[in-house]
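Researcher: Let's walk through a ligand-bound prediction step by step. First, I give you the protein sequence. Second, the SMILES string for coenzyme A. Third, you return the three-dimensional complex as structure tokens. Ready?
Model: Ready.
Researcher: Here are steps one and two:
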Amino acid sequence: MSDAASIVDLDETDADGRRQAAEVLYEAFRALGNRTWPSVAAAEKEVSDCLQPPRLCRALVLNGRVVAWGGLRPMYGTVTWELHPLVVHPDAQGRGLGGRLLTDLEHRARQRGATGILLGSDDQTGSTSLSAVDFSTTPVGDAIAVIASIPGRPPHPWRFYASHGYRIVGVIPDANGPGEPDILMWKGLGGG
Ligand SMILES: CC(C)(COP(=O)(O)OP(=O)(O)OC[C@H]1O[C@@H](n2cnc3c(N)ncnc32)[C@H](O)[C@@H]1OP(=O)(O)O)[C@@H](O)C(=O)NCCC(=O)NCCS
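Model: Step three, the predicted complex:
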């Protein structure tokens, strides 16, 4: 990774930074075929939402541009925080930047007194075996135990999070529609 990379608070008053963060969010999900943020303007609204206190927003700046960012928000009081979102621009993925940002966010969460981080990672592209599970007949634990990637589909980030110590703790079946579950992952921060 370039020495020019730094991680900073995303600043509500920094219009350029907010715009760049919105572009990263838009491009990262567009590359996955995910239209949750169908325009940069929609992504800008999300960035602004993530900047509302007490939420935290950290941006990874490389050569003067935001290329990745992540947000944290209290979920169960300030004990468990939700990671939402975590995005790296497609041109900058696979170079360790997402992992570096995640470590920084965990550090910030600990500073705020968090003992755990939860995230929901949707599978809206049939990228994991969970998208084919009928949860009305299959116990969630059984399905989680044998989760597998579907070859040829856009990669789902559960392996990325697992490599950083996150465990699958649940699934919301059909969260986004039939066969489109939300995969819940959690990491305890105690003692870290
Ligand atoms: C997921 C994401 C944040 C990871 O950031 P990154 O900078 O690409 O990841 P890193 O370079 O730090 O780590 C890559 C490692 O994770 C693994 N990995 C697993 N799934 C992955 C995925 N979907 N994307 C990227 N890496 C993935 C890689 O194989 C690699 O492992 P290795 O180092 O052993 O080879 C980033 O790819 C991204 O923004 N993806 C699109 C948006 C997204 O899915 N966000 C998460 C929503 S919950």
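Researcher: And what stands out?
Model: The two ends are 24 Å apart (CA to CA). The chain has a mean pLDDT of 95.
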